[in-house]
Amino acid sequence: MKKRNTKIDREIERLKLMRDEDINTSEVPEITDWSRVVVGKFYRPVKEPVTLRLDADIVAWFKSKGPGYQTRINDLLRRAMATGAVSASVRGERPVKTYREAADETHRLEPFHFPNLERHGQLEKCNHIAGLIAERGSLFASTP
Length: 144
Prior knowledge:
Distance between the termini: 69 Å
Radius of gyration: 27 Å
Strand content: under 5%
C-alpha cells in the first residue's frame, strides 16, 4: 500500500474548511476563450454488461464502420432516449407497422453491404434467413 503524504492531507483538509471567498486564486489565470473546451471529457457513466440479441445485419453494419461499434450503438440509444424518439414497441404498445410491412419496405430500399459476412461466407445464409422472415412475417412461423 502506498504511504500517504500527511502534509498534503493536512493542506487538503485546511482548504476544505475554507470558504470559497477566502481562497486566493490571484495566480490562476482567468479563462476567456472557451472555444476549445470539451464538455464531459472525463465523465464516464457506469457501464453494465448485458447480453443483447441484435439482428446480424445490424451488428455487421455497425462493425463495418470500424472499431468502437458498441460505443456507437450506446450513443445511438442515448440520443433516441434523450430526444424521446422511442418506438411503440419499446413502450409496450403495438407497433404501427407489422413485421411483414417493415420487411417489404426494407426490400424496396437500397441493399446493405456487409463485407464481414461476405468474408466469412455467412452472407448467403443471412440473406436466406431474411427472405424467410420477409416471406413468413416471422422466423418462427410455419411455412405458408
